[in-house]
Design goal:
This protein has five helices and nine strands. The protein is of the alpha/beta class. It is globular, with a radius of gyration of 17 Å.
Length: 213
């Protein structure tokens, strides 16, 4: 459990508070980014395809992690699943390396077409925002500027665009295909964007017991 910045957590997103609340023991922070939860300590490992200067950082694809089975008590997927072309595989790997998975999942509605592997209708490229590279863009952001070291090319991993548009049914299907079961399922009203209310799924998952239907 995070021990620092408790007062700040009281005033931040429910997604961040949720991750901090349920992440316990030895933590692997998957798709860590700028580490908004402030996970720290010798028992925390941070993983991302981009390189950050976090302590105990490992550059790796979440779909193929370099860790042993049950090496961690908690795997955290904070707003990462919507970026994955194969969410079931990402969830399966998280569940393989940890005894429990804590995930927050953004409800995306701005995709053009069906559910799987789509892109934003209107997502601009970083050059349209006045930056030469995605690294330059991240260095301009206060939360990222002191932690980002290098950025993997967009041809290898997408950054801003979400590629998944989940529904309750499709998200549950991915969880089941990963061999996981739900301990906690909560859908939280996050706010409004472009005049539309949107939600986030707040999940705690574990490996499916052999005798569970």
């Amino acid at each position: 459990m995070v021990t620092e910045q408790k007062e700040q957590i009281m005033f931040t997103s429910e997604r961040i508070k949720y991750q901090c609340m349920f992440a316990q023991g030895k933590i692997v922070n998957l798709g860590c980014g700028e580490n908004p939860c402030g996970f720290s300590g010798d028992d925390t490992v941070h993983v991302d395809m981009d390189v950050y200067n976090h302590k105990n950082f490992v550059c790796s694809d979440i779909h193929n992690l370099p860790f042993d089975d049950d090496e961690f008590d908690t795997a955290v997927l904070g707003d990462v699943l919507e970026h994955s072309p194969t969410p079931s595989l990402m969830l399966k790997e998280a569940g393989r390396v940890a005894k429990k998975v804590v995930a927050t999942v953004f409800e995306e509605w701005r995709l053009d077409g069906g559910i799987e592997e789509q892109k934003y209708k209107f997502m601009g490229d970083v050059k349209a925002l006045g930056f030469e590279t995605h690294y330059d863009y991240l260095k301009s952001l206060p939360l990222y500027k002191d932690s980002i070291v290098s950025v993997t090319d967009d041809s290898v991993v997408t950054h801003h665009p979400h590629v998944q548009m989940f529904t309750d049914e499709s998200l549950l299907k991915h969880i089941q295909e990963a061999g996981l079961e739900v301990i906690i399922w909560h859908k939280f009203f996050e706010g409004e964007h472009e005049g539309r209310p949107f939600y986030n799924w707040l999940l705690v998952l574990r490996k499916k017991c052999p005798n569970t239907e």
